[in-house]
Amino acid sequence: MADNDKAAGSTKRREMPDGIWLKCPDCGEILYRKEVVRNRWVCPKCSHHFRISADDYIELLVDPGSFEEYFQDIAPVDALGFRDTAKYSDRLRNAQNGNRGREAVRTGRALIEQNEVCLAVMDFSFLGGSMGSVVGEKLARLTQTALEGELPLLIVSCSGGARMQEGILSLMQMAKTAAQLARLAERGLPFISILTHPTTGGVSASFATLGDVILAEPKALVGFAGPRVIEQTIQQELPPGFQRSEFLLEHGMIDRIVARNELRSTLSQLIRFFNDARQTRQLG
Ligand SMILES: [Zn+2]
Predict the structure, then answer these.
(1) What is the pTM of this model?
(2) Pick from 129, 138, 214, 239: most CB atoms within 10 A?
(3) How many angstroms separate the alpha carbon of residue 27 from the centre of ligand 1?
(4) Is the dihedral of CA 139, 96, 198, 50 positive or negative?
(5) Are both 44 and 78 inside the same structural domain?
């Protein structure tokens, strides 16, 4: 009986007109799509944060029309002639087709409640937001822009980690981004890192966790290796909620969990705080 019900239910769901309803992967509730969109892609029942695009984050965070995009012309190359189940060059071409030629990060300058910032937002839809040479270069250049303009730097991370198809060239981006951020720190300019679901691998192991302030969206997966790999390595079961934002906050790895609809105001507050502190220092 129960099985029949379930089967009937799933048939019904398949018959639902595409795009009007969607199912929350966390609480299982069937949601009215428009309501979820209005709620910034957060489940109104359980606050599950659906993944949103880089464009959506830019729209969410910055003053309307203030985002000025930089470094769009830097394009990736398949330097190693790499091939796994598909050619890297083909994967790149496919990803670029769906992304208007962009790479896995968008970088630029913007205003957040009138405060000027340098902003980078990673794009998971481009090869899992993986960090290859172009992502590293764009982030390094943006950090340089922040240095020259004496501006705060904000990076919204969403990434599976380093881009394995670029091998060592990809891993080198970890050192490159970290070195640039150290220069920013020397100059007393703030870097605010915003971790979204998921932020893992070489991205979590480099710039994403080097923020002066590290914010995370609720329940975001943040870690280096995945839970399955860790369990196999240490031969132990992991505690519940391991590698989620709440667990990281409890263990002092991040500073604050911020719901998506409070992200803009929280960032604005932090930027103002750092700008005031910097001004006071300069006056002193
Ligand atoms: Zn839900």
Answers:
(1) 0.91
(2) 129
(3) 4
(4) positive
(5) no
